[in-house]
Design goal:
The chain has 71 residues and is mostly helical. It has four helices and no strands.
């Protein structure tokens, strides 16, 4: 329930297009674990959110973009 309630806030704080562009520009999908962690920390600083929120948003954005590609 909490995650569902957090979704609209995350969507406002971290717009899907900006997060997706960041992930693509930094090759997040193919990055090693240390690089991914560094990118998550960068998102945390940029959007002033916790690591949990940044990780959750990255997961949501990836899932949404993958769903859109399948359509």
């Amino acid at each position: 329930v909490e995650q569902i309630a957090d979704y609209p806030a995350a969507a406002l704080l971290m717009p899907i297009s900006q997060i997706y562009d960041f992930l693509v520009e930094n090759d997040y999908a193919n990055a090693e674990k240390n690089k991914r962690y560094s990118l998550i920390r960068e998102l945390c600083k940029k959007y002033e959110v916790s690591e949990i929120i940044a990780l959750r948003r990255v997961k949501e954005v990836n899932e949404l973009k993958n769903m859109k590609m399948k359509l």
